[in-house]
Design goal:
By secondary structure, the chain is mostly beta strands. The chain has one domain. About 0% of the residues lie in helices and about 65% in strands. The chain contains no helices and 10 strands. The strands form 3 sheets. Strands 2-1-5-6 form a 4-stranded antiparallel beta sheet, with no helix packed on it. Strands 3-10-7-4 form a 4-stranded antiparallel beta sheet, with no helix packed on it. Strands 8-9 form a two-stranded antiparallel ribbon. The relative contact order is 0.31.
Length: about 100
């Protein structure tokens, strides 16, 4: 069984045992998170939400709070200037522990 869940405006396809990286969420490593914005449940009897499936929940555990690799932002104008910046986005790694339809 799998589901499509919305977390902070982004949609993710998840199944039990998956590890997904999402935008930074509040919480300590090892704490449990319950996600109730389930848009679709797939499997033998699929359920489509309007917009969410009522009563469906996805349980997850926070396994890492970190920052992603550096992205170099380079702006230049020929003959005038070059500006170089770097950016590292914060993220949270979630391990999906269960899906309740």
């Amino acid at each position: 069984m799998y589901g499509i869940v919305e977390i902070k405006g982004h949609q993710y396809r998840v199944k039990e045992g998956d590890i997904i990286d999402v935008q930074k969420m509040e919480g300590e490593v090892g704490s449990k998170v319950e996600l109730d914005q389930v848009l679709f449940i797939g499997g033998d009897s699929p359920k489509v939400g309007t917009p969410v499936v009522s009563g469906a929940k996805v349980n997850a555990e926070i396994i890492r709070q970190a920052r992603s690799r550096k992205v170099i932002v380079l702006r230049r104008s020929p003959g005038k200037y070059i500006k170089k910046n770097g950016h590292r986005q914060h993220y949270t790694a979630l391990k999906i522990t269960g899906i309740k339809a």
